[in-house]
Specification:
With 185 residues, this protein is mainly alpha-helical. The protein contains 3 helices and no strands. The longest helix is centred in the middle third of the chain and has 150 residues, at 15-164. It starts with 6 loop residues before the first helix and ends in a 7-residue tail after the last helix. The model is unreliable at 1-5 (pLDDT under 50).
Amino acid sequence: MAVISSPEHIGFTDKTSRMRAVSGLVFLVVCLMVALMYQAVKQELTLRSLKSNALRISNLLKSKEGEIVQIKTKIQQINEELLPINKNRDEMIQKKEESAKAKSEAENSLQTCNKEKAEVDKKKVDMSAALQKIKSDEEEQKMKAQQEIEGLKKQILERDKSLCAFVDSGIEEGRKLCGIAEAPK
């Protein structure tokens, strides 16, 4: 086999086609370099964005850790505040036991009071008669008061009706007070 190195075999027959081929090759190389530069810039911007996000997340994490520490100290303070409350609870249990003792003493007193109750029952009969009289007087006064209230309500309604005759129906507040639906147009 013979080595073919003449320009006719390569496909370039004259100088201008060679120049076109070289300039086309240069153009392709320049396009490739521009594409590589674009990709490098894009990767750099993405890297910067990721770094800024990582820094922001790191700062956020630190602030959340601070909040957790504050919450833990608050819980510790609340636990310290619960100690006197638990002590008060124990004291109340003791008072409850003392109250139970007092209850048994009160039951003894109750028996004594039952004897006195019999005497009071006799007085109760007399009092219930007096109470019945008071109730009937009260009913009578209640009826009179109700009649007076009804009379006053009627007077107020009549006064309001006479005032509504003078109210300008073009003003919204006047319509509301007098119950007028819409302003005349």
